[in-house]
């Protein structure tokens, strides 16, 4: 048995390397994948961006049996399918009428590693569809965004409630539920509704320690919007993207208008805009061609931009789950990020309106309770982080987090001595002689042996590989900080292939370098986690 386990482990690592190019698993991934391979049902509750998808993408590649993945949005599935195909994985989705017939018959032949389906499609599929698929082999059935099954969740979708009807069609196939937010109650709902058996549960901490949380009251006036626009203008000038969430389309329009008037390049995003416009905005934002998006909750799932620096809520969301998820879109790269929530009493008066007429009793009390929790959060004098964590059933590590408005003044950001890293990056930029952008010095620090590095002889330098313990993303973000602080200098040069950015050491950086022959004594304080 030990030998079998070792074989399984090495098969997993080989697949990880071959298809995904990663050298190691994140800790929970290995455990969950092993449990799935052993036929166990699993519940995976982890932050967005933590790598949950790997849990259902890996087993089909190991067992050569199709994985069926239930996902709520076609656009999300299309993105995933495209990404997987680029990695040489046979992925497809069932849900659009035009292609369904061929896809369905190919699926039944076992032609796909991963088959995405909407919940409607899955529940409407015939017994014979499932039995042919099963005959070829099914490695698992995954339910992504599994909180949608729960009336207590913030994104309830009735179509998710019938997924247990798939169980008899897929005997002995492990069911895997995945979500980024779930209170205890929602977790219970998921287990019950999907009829999960002897479930293996993997839950990560909800603490996003790099996010500063703050709450303020406001009024929906043009004066306030102008003030907000000036703030955003200032923040954006310092770099990084900003996402502003509004509760209504009207708010989106008014806030966007105020921003544009102030000279901020901001665009609106809400369900009433055409698909084309929305996609364009999404794309521009992901590519850093657009710094500010003002959106309703319609801008949500599928955003995985790692370097959003600020999320602002113009009005309180309907629940803390929604707030946690939306605010959590900033700072995915682990660097400091800020989440401000502006609320007014009006936000909570709406609760009665939403919860009034059409809802079932259970749903109505769920909506009201969610609002109450959000209201309590807004008016609490306690640590915001502790309040959020406790809401998700987690004990806060400290009573005072030092990184929220109630624990400290907003300008009292925690500073860290980054002298050692600064010394490395500045030295390397200097080595590169101002002839390159930020990529080159970062690649040198990370120990890359790319051709351009060997051609320049940078692989022979003393700094080559010294920055391996930090990611490329981290170094780039750190470089941005040094630029903002004036240690580095960026110039633009026009070349036949377009404008390129060159980075060099600024006067302030030179002074720092020459004053720090002994790095241990130097000090360079930045609001950045080491
Ligand atoms: P989630 O589904 O939890 O939101 P994803 O599955 O989209 O997160 O993964 C987030 C990012 O992390 C993706 O870019 C993914 O390729 C990457 N990732 C996943 N697993 C690993 C790993 N073991 N090593 C490095 N990167 C990983
Ligand atoms: Zn705090």
List the SSEs and their pairings:
Layout: H1 2-20, H2 27-37, E1 42-45, H3 53-63, E2 66-70, H4 74-86, E3 91-94, H5 97-108, E4 114-117, H6 119-124, H7 127-136, E5 138-143, E6 175-179, H8 184-193, E7 200-203, E8 211-217, H9 222-237, E9 241-246, H10 249-261, E10 266-269, H11 275-286, E11 292-295, E12 308-314, H12 320-327, E13 337-343, H13 345-355, H14 361-379, H15 384-391, E14 416-417, H16 419-431, H17 439-445, H18 451-456, H19 472-484, E15 488-495, E16 498-505, H20 507-514, E17 525-526
Parallel strand pairs: 1-6, 1-7, 2-4, 2-5, 3-4, 5-6, 8-13, 9-11, 9-12, 10-11, 12-13
Antiparallel strand pairs: 14-17, 15-16
Helix pairs in contact: 2-3, 5-7, 9-10, 13-14, 16-17
The structure holds adenosine-5'-diphosphate and zinc ion (ZN).
Structure overview:
This protein has 530 residues and is α/β, with parallel strands linked by helices. 43% of the residues lie in helices and 16% in strands. It has helices at 2-20, 27-37, 53-63, 74-86, 97-108, 119-124, 127-136, 184-193, 222-237, 249-261, 275-286, 320-327, 345-355, 361-379, 384-391, 419-431, 439-445, 451-456, 472-484, 507-514, and strands at residues 42-45, 66-70, 91-94, 114-117, 138-143, 175-179, 200-203, 211-217, 241-246, 266-269, 292-295, 308-314, 337-343, 416-417, 488-495, 498-505, 525-526. A hairpin with a 2-residue loop joins strand 15 and strand 16. Helix 5 packs across helix 7. The chain starts with a helix and ends with a strand. The chain binds adenosine-5'-diphosphate and zinc ion.
């Amino acid at each position: 048995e030990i030998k079998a386990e070792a074989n399984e482990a090495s098969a997993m690592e080989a697949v990880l390397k071959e298809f995904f190019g990663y050298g190691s698993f994140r800790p929970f991934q290995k455990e969950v994948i092993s449990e799935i391979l052993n036929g166990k049902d699993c519940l995976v509750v982890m932050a967005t961006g933590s790598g949950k998808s790997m849990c259902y993408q890996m087993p089909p590649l190991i067992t050569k049996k199709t994985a069926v993945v239930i996902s709520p949005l076609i656009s999300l599935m299309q993105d995933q399918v495209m990404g997987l195909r680029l990695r040489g994985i046979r992925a497809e989705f069932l849900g659009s009428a035009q292609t369904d017939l061929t896809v369905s018959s190919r699926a039944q032949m076992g032609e796909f590693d991963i088959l995405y389906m909407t919940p409607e499609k899955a529940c409407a599929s015939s017994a014979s569809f499932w039995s042919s698929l099963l005959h070829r082999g099914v490695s698992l059935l995954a339910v992504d965004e599994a909180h949608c099954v729960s009336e207590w969740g913030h994104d309830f979708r009735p179509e998710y409630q019938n997924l247990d009807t798939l169980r008899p069609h897929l005997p002995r196939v492990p069911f895997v539920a995945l979500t980024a937010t779930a209170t205890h109650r929602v977790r219970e709902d998921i287990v019950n509704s999907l009829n999960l058996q002897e479930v293996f549960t993997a839950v990560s901490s909800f603490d996003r320690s790099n996010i500063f949380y703050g709450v303020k009251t406001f009024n929906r006036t043009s004066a306030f919007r102008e003030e907000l626009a000036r703030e955003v203008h200032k923040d954006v000038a310092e770099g990084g993207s900003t996402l502003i969430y509004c509760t209504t389309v009207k708010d989106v329009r008014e806030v966007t208008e105020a921003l544009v008037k102030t000279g901020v390049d901001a665009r609106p995003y809400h369900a009433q805009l055409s698909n084309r416009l929305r996609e364009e905005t999404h794309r521009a934002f992901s590519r850093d061609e657009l710094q500010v998006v003002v959106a309703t909750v319609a801008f949500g799932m599928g955003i995985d931009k790692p370097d959003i620096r600020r999320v602002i809520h113009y009005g309180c969301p309907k629940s803390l789950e929604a707030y946690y998820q939306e605010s959590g879109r900033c700072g995915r790269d682990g660097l400091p990020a800020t989440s401000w929530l502006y609320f007014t009493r009006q936000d909570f008066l709406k609760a009665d309106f939403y919860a009034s007429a059409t809802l079932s009793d259970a749903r109505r009390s769920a909506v009201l309770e969610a609002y109450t929790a959000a209201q309590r959060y807004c008016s609490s004098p306690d640590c915001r982080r502790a309040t959020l964590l406790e809401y998700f059933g987690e004990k806060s590590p400290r009573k005072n987090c030092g990184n929220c408005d109630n624990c400290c003044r907003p300008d009292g950001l925690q500073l860290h001595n980054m002298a050692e890293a600064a010394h490395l990056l500045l030295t390397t930029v200097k080595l590169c002689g101002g002839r390159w952008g930020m990529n080159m010095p970062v690649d040198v620090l990370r120990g890359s042996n790319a051709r351009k590095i060997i051609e320049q002889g940078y692989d022979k330098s003393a700094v080559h590989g010294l920055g391996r313990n930090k990611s490329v993303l981290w170094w780039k973000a750190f470089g941005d900080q040094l630029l903002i602080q004036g240690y580095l200098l960026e110039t633009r040069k026009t070349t036949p292939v377009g404008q390129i950015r060159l980075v060099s050491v600024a006067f302030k950086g030179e002074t720092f370098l020459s004053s720090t022959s002994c790095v241990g004594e130097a000090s360079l304080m930045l609001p950045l986690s080491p």
